[in-house]
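Structure (tokenized):
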């Protein structure tokens, strides 16, 4: 598995943990996890060379963000 895919998967795992912590009311922990997830996503986007993959990932993040903000 390539390094940048590892960045993406680690970011997804951290984001899932952040959502869980958020749901439990652990706001400080959730914020820390969201920030870490974004750092991994940033690294993934920096190294991913497949423009289709980058575009699809960015769109998923936009949809997820809209969903979370409207909740």
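Design, position by position:
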């Amino acid at each position: 598995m390539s390094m940048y895919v590892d960045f993406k998967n680690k970011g997804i795992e951290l984001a899932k943990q952040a959502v869980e912590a958020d749901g439990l009311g652990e706001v400080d922990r959730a914020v820390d996890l969201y920030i870490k997830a974004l750092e991994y996503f940033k690294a993934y986007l920096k190294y991913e060379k497949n423009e289709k993959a980058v575009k699809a990932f960015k769109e998923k993040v936009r949809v997820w963000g809209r969903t979370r903000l409207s909740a």
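Reviewer-requested clarification: The radius of gyration is 13 Å. The CA atoms of residues 11 and 40 lie 5 Å apart.
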